[in-house]
Each structure stands twice: as C-alpha cells, then as structure tokens.
Amino acid sequence: MRKFSQAFTLVELIVVITILAILGTISFISYQGFSSSARDSNRITQASSITRALESYRINKTVPVPENNVRVEINGILVGYQGYLGQNGLNAIGYSKGGKDPKDNTYFTYYTTENLYNFQILVYLEKGGIAFVPQTYADTIDYSKRIAKVYGDKLGILTDTNNIPIQEITSIKTSGELDVATNVTTYKASLTDTEIISGTGTKLISGAVSKLAGNDYKSCKDILEHIPLSNGLDGIYTITPDKTGAFQVYCDMTTDGGGWTRVSYSVGGNYTDVIPKIDTTSLNEMYYSYVRSNNYSQKYAFKFLRLWTKQCGVEHGSLTSLPIGVKDYVGHILQTVSWGTCDRISTSGDENDILVAKIIEGAYGDDSCLNGSLRKNAPRNFSWGQVLLNGRTLGSFKHRISNNTILFGPRGEGSSRCAGNSSGPGANNISLFVR
Question: Most Cβ neighbours (<10 Å): which of 6, 14, 164, 277?
C-alpha cells in the first residue's frame, strides 16, 4: 500500500508566513534602530572633531566662509553667513575624516559671524527614528523628524519651525539673504541644544542671532567695541565677565555712544543688581537714569563726571577711589550715596559735590533740577563750569547733593528731592549703568 506524507495545510502555511514576516520586521526595525544610533554617534564624533579643528584654526586665522551661504542681516547690515562647511573649508582646517552626514551625504550646516571669528555647527540626529524608505531615495530630507544639535559658539544658528536650515528655504536661497529685523516669518535661533529662541524681528535680535548673543564678552562696552552693529540696538545681551559663566544683562547701546551695562535697577519697589558678577576695575564711567514721581512717561539721566567724597572732615571709604566714574569701585555701588548733616561751607577742606553732565538725547528729557544753583558759585565749584573732560566743555552741568540726600540707596532708593533741591518730585524707577 502506498503511504502519503502529511503536508502543511493552507492555514498552517499562512501562520508560518505571518510569523516569519513578524520576525523579519522585528529584525529590520532592530537593524534600523542600531543603524540610526551608529549614525548619530558618527555625527556627534565628527561635529566634535570639526569644532576642535575650527577652534585651533581661528587662533591665528579667520574661519572659512560657509559655502552656498546666505547673508544674515539686521536692517540691511551684515551680521553673519549661514551655509555649509564644505570640502574647501574642511581642507582649510585640515579635517580629513569625512565631514558629511552619514545618512544624507550632505555637509553640515555652518554659521559664522561677519568677522569670521565666531562659528556654530548644526547636525541633525535621528534619535532612533525609524524610516522604512531609505532617505537617500527620498526627494528631500524631512528635518521635522530630526533632532537639531549645535556645536561651537553660542550664536543662534537659524532654522524655520520645521527645523529646515535657512539656506535651504527656497525664498531665502533665491534672494541670498535674510534680514532678521524686517522678516515676518517665525524662525528658531539655537543658541544651545536647549536654549532656543523662536520669534520674528526684535525678539531674535535682542535674544539671539549670532554676535548679538554677546558670546564671551565681559561687558556691554566689550560687545560694542567688537560688534559695531550692536550700536543703537538696546536690549538683553549675554556676557561672561569672568569667562566662567554667562548671564544676561540689559545693555544701553544708544545713550552717549552706547556700551553701558546696567548693574543695578529698581522698578516698582523691586530691586535687582548684578554687581557681584561684574568686574568694574576696567570701567571708568557711570550714569544714572530715573523718572519723576509726577511724570512716569518722561525719563531723565545724568552721567557722573566727578565725585568728591569728603564730608565733615571724614572721607567716605567706599567712595574714596571714585575720582571719575567707577574705576576701582568694586563692590561698593550698592552703598548709599548720601552725605552727613554738617554744613559743607562751614567745614574747611571738605568737598562733597557731584559734578554731572546731563544726558539729553534719545528717550531722555531735560531735567531742570540738574541745573540747580545751590552752592554753584562757591569758590571750589566755580571753576568746574570750565572743566574739559574728553574735549567737552561742561558749562553749567553741575549738581550739588544736599545734606541727607540719597541718590541711589542700597535697595534702589531714589532721592526724595529734586536732585539736591528741596523742591520737586523725587526720583523713581532708577537704573545704574557702568561703562
């Protein structure tokens, strides 16, 4: 009798095929996950190595100009270039280990400041994301599914809200430029991996955008000297006075030539100071802005030009080293600037007057209080009207601090008098700037 071997039924075959398909899918996903992790490691390694190479290269030279770049401008003024660190740039810095994304086969996005010193590199990590269609066969790279990671200086490399770098956006690529100040489209500026500012126009200008982030500058004056573009752009900047930690300060880039760092201020009774973080030994000037309690819409300001601190035969130790401005004034700005109760004229040899120059420009008004005649014609004061400081005649810009008058107290208190006169509303909302 003929014997027949038992075969798989149709149902069993379907089950086996299904199991094999599932196992194959799991294997494929595992492989894809492993591959994306490996590619991310490659990107991180390359970006770190390229950053080190650029940092070494810029010690004696300017960094390479980004290839296929677009100009980044603010009100028509160039602030930087954004494009790619292409083969020419890689050759220049001596990097020979690739320089391209391992998946996309594209050069990394690269931003430099206008002076070709500061730079930032942008790479796109997959973070284990699964793509069943190899990206090399796709028409475009889907950056929205990638994680942006930046290296180099804290600048603010620019992308749109879908993570597309600006040099790949058709309209910007066609025009060859992006004016951050006038654009109405929301862009993201990545200062670090976690510090990302999103917005248009002035929000990006004050909070990010390349050099305006104040990378590694010790003061607002330092920013202004290295970045002429910042002239006239008041706002929040980042400084690193001690080169170990960055923090944000308000910079006045307009008044009297700009470059003023706000070190103390009092608004609505809330007092803030950053003086402990500021090294004032390199600063020589100080100015004080305020409003009057009867008119909060008008601001006033004056610059300290000369301060004599001897009162009743006793020198004020915290202010002794303040002949002009704030040089050698470390840690003492918070102490109350006020005088004793003795009569200055009856005390021979005492001098406790402040010579100031009114600041009447921009948002500041002409405060008549600062032309007060109190003690103005005293012999030791009279010649001050002809004093020249940096080529400027001071004229009547002088000011006598009356007894018990507080200009700026340890918690932001202002004078209850009209800048040394017994009449007039007191000062409020005070800010103290140094330069």
Answer: 164
